[in-house]
């Protein structure tokens, strides 16, 4: 299911749609394009949401999700795959099977569980499936603190906690883990990239902004396009991290709640 690498960097995005455009597939596509890649999609769910929260979720049938992905892979191909909202056990199982079919294309797994506004985007009984089926298939896993806690059972409230949880996720089979620190209290935000050979710290002052909707989706997609374009893992993550920081800083100020980022800032730079 692979073909010659495109200089653009082709990313297949398997995730849910966000009607507000700030997260999900919409944020993923904007990110991939802004960073010079080519994005294609297999949509797992249609959500009803805006900056104030999620008010409805319509799952797409599993066979249709699989058909979307196979249609893309058999024709356009992909240099990286990014997964986001999966929803339930059946979808997790189906996407894990797709990743096996697409091997050795690297997968960036964002274990989406809860929307920014607090709505659940993953059934409680699907956490075990994500742990056993998605984590071992991750070239890069990008959990925030609550997601890491759900997957490992470890409390994540400090940098040392991030390190312990990330190490546990490596032991579960992920080839690399980017432990995001946005949910960890403090004036500084620290993201920690862990691999079996070492760690890299990304640290910055916490931005005083309500415009954080879709930061996780955006970061994972930015990492995926970097890998798709042939960057080494640490360089892909560093580039993605810097992209998200500026996208937050230049957010357009839309909405009444958790506002979207400025995904297109690179096009004006």
Name some characteristics of this structure.
269 residues; alpha/beta; UDP-N-acetylmuramoyl-L-alanine:D-glutamate ligase; six-stranded mixed beta sheet; three-stranded antiparallel beta sheet; 9 helices; 9 strands; 21% strand
Low-confidence stretches: 1-6
Main sheet? 6 strands, mixed
The CATH C-level name is Alpha Beta
Number of domains: 1
Distance between the termini: 36 Å
**Can you identify the CATH superfamily?**
Ribokinase
How would you spell out the order of helices and strands?
A: EHEEHEHEHEHHEEEHHH
Name of the CATH architecture: 3-Layer(aba) Sandwich
Level of helix content?
25-40%
The count of β-strands is: 9
Question: What is the strand and helix layout of this fold?
Answer:
Blueprint (H helix, E strand, L loop, with lengths): L9 E9 L5 H11 L3 E13 L2 E7 L2 H14 L4 E4 L5 H14 L4 E3 L17 H8 L5 E2 L3 H8 L6 H13 L5 E3 L8 E8 L2 E8 L9 H14 L4 H17 L15 H4 L1
Parallel strand pairs: 1-2, 1-4, 4-5, 5-6
Antiparallel strand pairs: 2-3, 7-8, 8-9
Helix pairs in contact: 1-7, 2-3, 3-4, 5-6, 7-8
Outline:
38% of the residues lie in helices and 21% in strands. It has nine helices and nine strands.
Description of the molecule:
The protein is α/β, with parallel strands linked by helices and 269 residues long. It has a single domain (10-259), classed as Ribokinase (UDP-N-acetylmuramoyl-L-alanine:D-glutamate ligase). It is 38% helix and 21% strand. It has 9 helices and 9 strands. It has helices spanning 24-34, 62-75, 89-102, 127-134, 145-152, 159-171, 215-228, 233-249, 265-268; strands spanning 10-18, 38-50, 53-59, 80-83, 107-109, 140-141, 177-179, 188-195, 198-205. Strands 3-2-1-4-5-6 form a 6-stranded mixed sheet, sandwiched between helices. Strands 7-8-9 form a 3-stranded antiparallel sheet, sandwiched between helices. The protein is globular, with a radius of gyration of 17 Å.
């Amino acid at each position: 299911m692979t073909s010659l690498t495109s200089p653009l960097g082709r990313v297949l995005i398997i995730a849910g749609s966000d009607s507000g455009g700030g997260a999900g597939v919409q944020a993923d596509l904007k990110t991939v394009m802004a960073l010079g890649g080519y994005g294609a999609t297999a949509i797992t769910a249609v959500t009803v949401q805006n900056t104030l929260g999620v008010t409805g979720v319509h799952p797409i049938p599993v066979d249709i999700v699989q058909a979307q992905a196979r249609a893309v892979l058999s024709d356009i191909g992909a240099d990286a795959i990014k997964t986001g909202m999966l929803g339930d056990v059946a979808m997790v199982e189906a996407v894990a099977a797709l990743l096996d079919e697409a091997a050795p294309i690297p997968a960036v797994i964002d274990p989406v569980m809860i929307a920014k506004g607090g709505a659940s985007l993953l059934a409680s009984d699907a956490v075990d499936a994500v742990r056993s089926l998605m984590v071992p298939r991750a070239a890069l896993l990008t959990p925030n603190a609550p997601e890491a806690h759900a997957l490992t059972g470890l409390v994540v409230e400090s940098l040392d906690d991030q390190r312990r949880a990330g190490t546990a996720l490596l032991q579960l089979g992920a080839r690399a883990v980017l432990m995001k620190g946005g949910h960890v209290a403090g004036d500084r935000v620290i993201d920690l990239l862990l691999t079996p050979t070492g760690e890299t710290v990304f640290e910055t002052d916490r931005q005083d902004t309500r415009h954080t909707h879709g930061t996780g989706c955006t970061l994972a997609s930015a990492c995926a396009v970097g890998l798709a374009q042939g960057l080494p893992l640490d360089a892909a993550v560093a580039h993605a991290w810097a992209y998200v920081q500026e996208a937050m800083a230049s957010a357009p100020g839309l909405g009444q709640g958790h506002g979207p980022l400025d995904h297109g800032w690179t096009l004006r730079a």
